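Thanks for the sequence, V.! I ran Carbon starvation protein A right away. Repeating your input here for the record:
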Amino acid sequence: MVTFIISIILLVAGYFTYGKYIDKMFGPKEKRPTPAYDQRDNVDFVPMKTSSNSLIQLLNIAGVGPIFGPIMGALYGPVAFLWIVFGCIFAGAVHDYLTGMISIRNKGAHLPELAGKFLGQVMKHVVNIFTLLLLLLTGTVFVTSPALLLHHLMDGRIALGVIIFVIFVYYMLSTVLPIDKIIGRIYPIFGALLVISAIGVGFRLIQTGAPIPELTLSNMHPDGAPIFPLLFFTITCGALSGFHATQSPIISRTTNNESNARIIFYGMMIAEGIIAMIWAAAAMSLFGSYGGLQEVLARGEAALVVSEVSTMLLGSVFGTLAVLGVIVLPITSGDTSFRSARMIIADYIHLGQRAISKRFLVAIPLFVISFILTRIDFTILWRYFSWANQTTAAVALWVGAMYLMIAKKNYWVAMVPATFMTWNLFTYILSQPIGFGIDLNISYFLAVGLTLLWIAYFYYQYQKHIAGEHFQLDHPIKMKMSI
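Predicted structure:
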C-alpha cells in the first residue's frame, strides 16, 4: 500500500516539477496564433476552452490501454509500478507535450508530416503506414472491447453484433462531423463516468486496506515472461504510448493558447498514469496471487478482471457505474482513432475536408477494413497493436529530440527515452514470434547495434537540417490571434 500511495504522489509531483521544467524549456509563446485560429475551418480547426481540450485529450488517450495494459502488466509484479511512474513522468508525458507543441508550431500537422520534416521524407511514408496501421488496430480493438463489456454487463440480452454495429455508427458520426458537434458536447458526460470509476476504485483500494504488494524488482510473472522487453509493450498507455502522438495533433488544432499546453498534454498524461496505477494495484491485490490473476485473465481476458474488480470493491450498483466508466474509455479513443486516420489520409493526399462528402470519402473505406479486422482474435490484434504503438512512440520522441536539438534546447529530455525505447523496440522485433524469433540474449546485443545505426542516421539528418538554408523550425503564421 505504501508503494502505491507514494507512486500516486510522485506522479502528481512530476506534473508540478518536471512538467513545469519541460514547459519552460520549450518556451510557449502566448501571443503566437495557434492553428485553431490561423487555420480555422470550423471542422477540425476550431478554438475551444482549455477545460474542454483537457478533457477531450484525456478521454482520447485513455482507451482500454491504461486499464487493460496495466492489468496484464500486473502479472510482472510491483516492478510494473516503476515503469508506470517513471515512464509516465520522463517519457510518456514528455512525448505527449512535445508532440502537441511541435504540431501547434507546424499548422496542426500529424506525426507522418512531422516525421517527414524532421527525420527525412522517407520517414514520412514509413510513419504514415505505421500510424494508419496503429489507428486502424486501435479503432478496431476499441470497438470489440467495449462491445464485449456491454454484452457481458447486459447478460447477453443484446446480441454482440448489434452492439458492435451501434458503436460503428457512433464512430462514423464522430469521425465526419465537426469536432465541437459531438465530441465537444458529450465528452463531459463521459468524463464524469471516467472520474467516478477511477476515483471509486482507487478510494476503495485504500479504504479496504487492499493487500497491494510493496516494491520489489523481482519478476513475478507466472510464466517467467521477461521484463525486458515485454513489460514495455504490455503497459503502454499509462506510461508511454505512440497512440498519443496520433491524438495530440487533434487537440493541437483546437488549443486556443500555447500557454495551456502543459495542462492539456503533459497534465492529462499524468492523469492517465494515475488511472493505470489504480488498475495495476487492483489487479495485483484482489485475486489472491499472480497465478489467480492469470486464471481470471485466461477465463475472460482483462474485461473480466475489470468487471470483477468493480463489483468486488463497489458493489453491484456502483460497480456497474465503474464498468460503464471503463466502457467509456475505449469508445472515446476509438472515435478519435478513426477521426485522426481520416485527417492523416486527407493531409497525405491533399484532400480538403470542409465538404462532408470528402470526409465520408476517406472514412468509409476505413470502417470497412476495421469491420473485417473485428473477425480476428483480440489477443492477436493486441500483439500487433503493442508493436505498432511503441514504434510510433519512438518515432515521436525522435521528432521531439530533433526539434529541440535544432532549436538549441535540452534535447536529452527526448533523446534518452527515445534511445531506450528504440533498443526495446529492436529487441522485441528480433526476439518475439511476431518478428524474427531470435534468442533473447542475442537479440539484446543485436538491438544495441541497430540502435546505434539509427542514432547515426539521426545525426546525419541533423547535419542536413543545420546545413540547409531554407529549413524552418516553426511554420510562419499568417494572422494575429484574437481571443
